[in-house]
Amino acid sequence: MDMEQIKQVGIAAALNGGKVLQEHFGNLRSVRKKGAIDLVTEADIRSETAIIATIAKAFPDHAILAEESGSHAGNGGRWIIDPLDGTTNFAHNLPLFCVSIAFAVGDDILAGFVLAPLLNELFVGVKGKGAQLNASPISVSPIRTLSDSLLVTGFPYDHPTIFDQLMERFGRCLTATQGVRRLGSAALDLCYVASGRFDGFWEQHLKPWDTAAGFLVATEAGARTTVFSGAPYSIDSDEIVSTNGAIHDELLSILER
Ligand code: IPD
Ligand code: CA
Ligand code: CA
CA torsion 210→137→146→242, rounded to 10°? Predict the structure, then answer.
């Protein structure tokens, strides 16, 4: 596997998706609902088309798993794509959103690309090669205790199904830390753990395209990432806890109490 080529294509795909998002930002014609509060816009669809076209041109045989168009069979590698992570922010003209693209072979995530086009921030992680923000190395925060930490979380669209548990966990974390934020993009949440802006992130009911790229960026920046039980995160885990490592056990014990 030529990881340098994977990296170049992943970055090009993210930039092409980001360009579409930038063109549509503040200027949407249609916003559809996939569920009661789960939105999809023409920007999601057009960004995904641009990303897939870029990848397919370089790697016509590779498989793709993309949020809006689903699974495309293939072999040799698999690209996991969220063409717009943070659609609700986007639809409300809040510039906190990104394109998220991971590359995996089997279940092994080998690269992650997360681009926030309006913030001009590109996060890249390649397995064994570290993580970068706009080509400069990044690493997780040096915070040692939960009481000194700033956390971030998210609420899934089906939050009514787990509402009490969600609020209990949120409340316990709020009282144990310096604060808890809710940005609205799981991929950026993970990249912000990677760059030390947050000390930890947790969320339930996520999909592979929300987490795969950010997981690799965070891991390469020194993060520890598991599910709530402490077992390792994998592409198909629908929940995630990612921290700077130092506060991980403390956070797990508060989440599971
Ligand atoms: C959502 C965002 C949000 C998270 C939701 C996700 P979308 O993805 O990552 O932060 O809380 O659970 O579904 O729908 O904007 O791609
Ligand atoms: Ca998403
Ligand atoms: Ca999305």
Answer: 20
**Model-level pTM?**
0.97
User: Which residue's CA is minimally distant from atom 16 of ligand 1?
Assistant: 85
Q: Phi and psi of 224, rounded to 5°?
A: -105, 130
Exposure string of 117-137, with b = 16+ CB inside 10 Å and e = fewer, is: bbeebbbbbbbeeebbbeeee
Q: Report d(CA 153, CA 12) in Å as an integer.
A: 29
Which residues make beta-bridge pairs with 131? 125
Atom number in ligand 1 closest to CA 85: 16
CB atoms within 10 A of CB 164: 7
Round to whole Å and give the CA distance between 88 and 185: 9
208 Cβ closer than 6 Å to some ligand 1 atom: no
- The full set of domains in the chain, from first to last, is 3-137 (3.30.540.10), 146-256 (3.40.190.80)
State how far the Cα of 253 lies from the Cα of 23, in Å rounded to an integer. 44
Model confidence pLDDT, tens digit, residues 111-140: 999 999 999 999 999 999 999 999 999 999
Please state, in angstroms and rounded to a whole number, the distance separating the CA atoms of residues 112 and 62: 16
Separation of 167 CA from ligand 3 center, angstroms? 24
Atom of ligand 1 minimally distant from the CA of 154: 11
Q: Which atom of ligand 1 lies at the shortest distance from residue 84's CA?
A: 16
